[in-house]
Amino acid sequence: MYRPKTTVEQWRILQAVVDFGGYAHAAEQLNKSQSSLNHAVAKLQQVLGVQLLEVRGRKAYLTDIGEVMLRRSRQLTQTVTELEQLADNLHFGWEPEVRLAVEMVCNRSPLLPIFADFNRESRGSRLIIDDTVLTGTLEQIVEQSADVVITHHLPKGVLGEPFAEFRMELVCHPQHELAKLPQPIKQSDLLNHLQVVIRDTASKPSETSGWLKAEQRWTVSHFDEALRLIKSGLGFCWLPTYMSEESVTRGELTRLTIDGSSHRSGLLYLVLPKGEKTGPCAKLLADKLLESRSSNLSPEVLAGSLS
Fold this sequence. Notes:
About 40% of the residues lie in helices and about 20% in strands. It has ten helices and eleven strands. The strands form three sheets. Strands 3, 4, 5, 6, 9, 10 and 11 form a seven-stranded mixed beta sheet that branches. Helix 5 links the parallel strand 3 (about 95-105) and strand 4. Helix 1 (about 10-20) packs across helix 4 (about 65-90). The protein is elongated and about 90 Å long. The model has no long low-confidence stretch (mean pLDDT about 90).
């Protein structure tokens, strides 16, 4: 079994000598004697058999070998720091990972700055993001398999905070037969055309939402795949407007209106399925998401959610 010749402390001392511009300033910062730092670096060089520093005047300079070794040593000390921090976090109940389930109708772009902010304060906890659809989202809440959930539907007895609004529209290719019909079309006009739907992510899906009466149906796992199919001229689909509006503007898709229904819209809610058992890291993520909701909700909905 290999036994290291050096210690993490020796590498930290070397880094301090370089970072603070010499032994004297490093000794001040580390609250150690200058002689102990000299001895630690000298011992490090001795056991390695290479010169890391050379002193010119009153300053210590890295050798070429020293520059390489210093860069690698920073990876070592960073890993050790993170390991020690992880142990401390776990001791005080900080979760090693947080699972966030997000309904696919939710626009992710506004969430990216929140994730970046969360990453800076997450103390190394991993974030797992699950894309969920329909009863798959409800399953994450009921089974408490996720720590934070963004859903368009609240199961009976479950409370949630209004988080964002969503809107979906029915679209097809501009040359599709449905696009050539006088608008608004009737629901019966859809019966004999291919409908592209998103697979329910539940382990036992229950397809009860949306218009699912088309004789022909193709099921895909994500809206991205649905968008590709529709843009190629295959079928019709309900798509979130954040995904479809650019293609509609460019003329790659066209909106369909059905008699009595031009679009679907609603609220997305943020839910903590584990309630009081929610860990501090998951609460941190939830708080940061809720802080951002003023940009996701209309003033009327926001006022109601905060009252």
